[in-house]
Amino acid sequence: NRLSNIAEFRCIVSKPFTLINGYTFRLKLFANGVGKSTVKFLSLYVQMGSTTPGEAQDNISTEEPVYPFRRVITLVVIDQSPNGKHFSTSIKALSTTPSFHSKPATGEFNTENGIEQFISLSSLNAYFDKPESTQFVKDNVLILGAAIRYNDTVL
């Protein structure tokens, strides 16, 4: 299995990223899945957080985020082949979703929200069987991303 190295890790958490409107997020990857998806799927989640004072990135506005957060979040696995057949799924942050309902405590993150069966591990390995299709893993690197739609602008 080409993903054996990454599957050794239970959970990989990205560095927090702050949007221009003050919201802070991070991604959580369970490379070997969670729950019923273990050893079958990659599980990918997003967490909304709150930066500590002075932690905000340069060029980020000091605009105070509005809660509950109600936006569409698209989670993406990048196809690193020339085909560019990226895999993505969107989730809608609803006001009833506890993960996005209220502002997290300073320096903390709310419970994650995402997709337990985000992409099958066999799909990630497909390139090794059919190189003309997709290449999600290249040189032992898997590239993930998140796009958040805000006022008809993708951030």
- DSSP strand count: 11
Largest sheet: 5 strands, antiparallel
- Give the ordered list of helices and strands: HEEEEEEHEHEEEE
Strand fraction band? 25-35%
Shape: globular
Continuous helix count: 3
What is the typical, i.e. mean, pLDDT? 79
Which spans have pLDDT < 50 for at least 5 consecutive residues?
none
The residue fraction in helices comes out at 10-25%
Overall radius of gyration: 16 Å
Q: Gist?
A:
The protein is mainly beta and 155 residues long. The protein has 3 helices and 11 strands, in the order αββββββαβαββββ. The protein starts with a helix and ends with a strand.
List keywords for this structure.
four-stranded antiparallel sheet; 155 residues; five-stranded antiparallel sheet; mainly beta; globular; 34% strand
Task: List the SSEs and their pairings.
Elements: H1 4-7, E1 12-13, E2 17-18, E3 24-30, E4 41-49, E5 72-77, E6 87-92, H2 98-101, E7 113-120, H3 121-129, E8 137-138, E9 141-142, E10 144-150, E11 153-154
Antiparallel strand pairs: 1-3, 2-3, 3-4, 4-7, 5-6, 5-10, 8-9, 10-11
Verbal overview:
The chain is mostly beta strands and 155 residues long. Helix content is 11%, strand content 34%. The protein is built from three helices and eleven strands; from the N terminus they run H-E-E-E-E-E-E-H-E-H-E-E-E-E. The chain has helices spanning 4-7, 98-101, 121-129; strands spanning 12-13, 17-18, 24-30, 41-49, 72-77, 87-92, 113-120, 137-138, 141-142, 144-150, 153-154. Strands 1, 2, 3, 4 and 7 form a five-stranded antiparallel sheet that branches. Strands 6-5-10-11 form a four-stranded antiparallel sheet, with no helix packed on it. A hairpin with a 5-residue loop joins strand 2 (17-18) and strand 3. The longest helix has 9 residues, at 121-129. The radius of gyration is 16 Å and the shape is globular.
